[in-house]
Amino acid sequence: MTENTEMLSYNIDEITKMIPHRYPFLLVDKVEQVVLNEKAVGIKNVTMNEPFFPGHFPGHPVMPGVLIVESMAQTSAVLVVGSMGEQLAGKVVYFMSIDGVRFRKPVRPGDRLELHVTKERSRGTVWKFIGEAKVDGKTVAEANFSAMIMDN
Prior knowledge:
Layout: E1 8-10, H1 12-18, E2 30-35, E3 39-45, H2 65-84, E4 91-103, E5 112-123, E6 126-135, E7 138-151
């Protein structure tokens, strides 16, 4: 088996062609360092304009942890679609499970959230991932999760 070491990246226009998420629930701005069938790094530029900050928390804005995990999942979905290409026509990638979630530090406006996802394995339509979210090189969250490819 040959090793695929070519790194790709996807901009926001390409991402919106790959996954169905849209504002206010599109939580990844760019996906870079993509090695198909292996890993990717999503980028989410967190701004004060996010719709969740007025209520989470007033006077102390913190990105909800579940949305950090969702950002990892969206990055993984882009990796799956990029890896499978035309085989995914008419299909969508759905969250299936989340395990071992840990939140280490709050994510705040002005942070550049890096979403490191690595494929642990895939079998049929199920893909399993290890995810780690970082700000300034420091881990802010981590999770193991899986996704399933289904008809749209």
